[in-house]
UniProtKB/TrEMBL annotation:
<protein>
    <submittedName>
        <fullName>Mycofactocin-coupled SDR family oxidoreductase</fullName>
    </submittedName>
</protein>
<keyword id="KW-0520">NAD</keyword>
<dbReference type="InterPro" id="IPR036291">
    <property type="entry name" value="NAD(P)-bd_dom_sf"/>
</dbReference>
<comment type="similarity">
    <text>Belongs to the short-chain dehydrogenases/reductases (SDR) family.</text>
</comment>
<dbReference type="InterPro" id="IPR020904">
    <property type="entry name" value="Sc_DH/Rdtase_CS"/>
</dbReference>
<dbReference type="InterPro" id="IPR023985">
    <property type="entry name" value="SDR_subfam_1"/>
</dbReference>
<keyword id="KW-0560">Oxidoreductase</keyword>
<dbReference type="Pfam" id="PF00106">
    <property type="entry name" value="adh_short"/>
</dbReference>
<dbReference type="InterPro" id="IPR002347">
    <property type="entry name" value="SDR_fam"/>
</dbReference>
């Protein structure tokens, strides 16, 4: 089999659907075996449903259809024991983990003066704490081998802010700080640590009725057509949503053979929103 990741092992958190699924397909196409770790249950902090076990199995089938192996593991990135168990199971099955994609995340918002404390706790625990747990569990193995590629998923909201989104914005800025600090520590061991910062991506996180209602509280049951122009305003290029494979392309670049000296970096894929950032 040809490809830039032949027989590498890629561990993906939040791998059941959305961007995690797109990454799984993209790395399998390049020859990798894939470990898919997902909570597969809903969260009280989100107004939309998370992935199901059938989503997870469907992603595994997409990987297997490319002749690659897929290991599915149900667990919560917030729980250190779940994450440790998953890493141990992956090492037991494949003998190594070459790449970690710390992608799992949830959207939970709220304005500073009225935000629900439990939403804050869960969003920070999943989006920042979960990235920490995944890196904590996988990096001793990578240090021992002297090789590793890690990409965490931040957001354009980890590079800028919007109103009514304190937990999410804070969690994603935290991811950027975490990958930079980790990149420093892991540089001597052949391990790179970077982030991707997506704009609006066409996944169930944004394509759901609750999100549409958030954007158009004046309408009883808003549909995509009622919010499209509002989503478009986050970007500069004339597009409201990007395809998840656009993020997979940035991930493939960061974990590929030509990127061994890119670490501590963030790649924005946001249809020009970066043009409005200060740096
Ligand atoms: N969709 C967007 O517009 C957008 C933009 C910027 C950043 N992001 C980020 O991209 C990443 C992927 O999100 P997506 O767009 O694919 O959304 P998604 O909701 O389709 O996928 C997120 C996945 O993470 C899983 N997950 C959530 N909490 C978990 C936990 N505690 N433990 C294990 N798995 C968990 C979900 O079950 C789901 O499969 C997230 O970190 C998200 O914050 C998304």
């Amino acid at each position: 089999m040809a490809g830039q990741l032949v027989d590498q092992v890629v561990f993906i958190t939040g791998g059941a659907r959305g961007q995690g699924r797109a990454h799984a397909e993209a790395v399998a196409e390049q020859g990798a075996h894939v470990v898919l770790f997902d909570r597969c249950s809903d969260s009280p902090a989100t107004s939309y449903g998370l992935a199901s076990r059938s989503d997870l199995e469907h992603t595994a089938k997409l990987v297997q259809a490319q002749g690659r192996e897929a290991l599915t593991l149900v667990g919560d990135v917030r729980d250190p024991e779940d994450v440790d168990r998953a890493v141990a199971a992956a090492l037991d099955r494949f003998g190594r983990i070459d790449v970690l994609l710390a992608n799992a995340g949830i959207y939970g918002g709220g304005a500073m003066h009225e935000v629900d404390r439990s939403v804050w706790d869960e969003v920070i625990d999943v989006n920042l704490g979960g990235v920490f747990q995944a890196l904590r569990a996988v990096t001793p193995h990578m240090v021992e081998r002297g090789y590793g590629r890690i990409v965490a998923t931040a957001s354009m909201l980890g590079r800028s802010a919007i109103s009514d989104a304190v937990p999410y914005v804070a969690s994603k800025w935290g991811v950027v700080g975490l990958i930079k600090a980790a990149a420093l520590d892991l540089a001597p061991f052949g391990i790179t640590v970077n982030a991707v910062a997506p704009g609006n991506i066409a996944t169930p996180m944004v394509q759901n009725d609750a999100m549409y209602r958030l954007f158009r509280p004046d309408l009883d049951s808003p549909a995509w057509g009622d919010v499209e122009s509002l989503f478009q305003q986050f970007h500069v290029q004339p597009v409201a949503l990007l395809d998840p494979v656009e993020i997979s392309s940035a991930v493939l670049f960061l974990i590929g053979p030509g990127s061994q000296h890119i670490t501590g970096s963030v790649i924005d894929v946001n249809a020009g929103a970066s043009a409005k950032f200060t740096a």
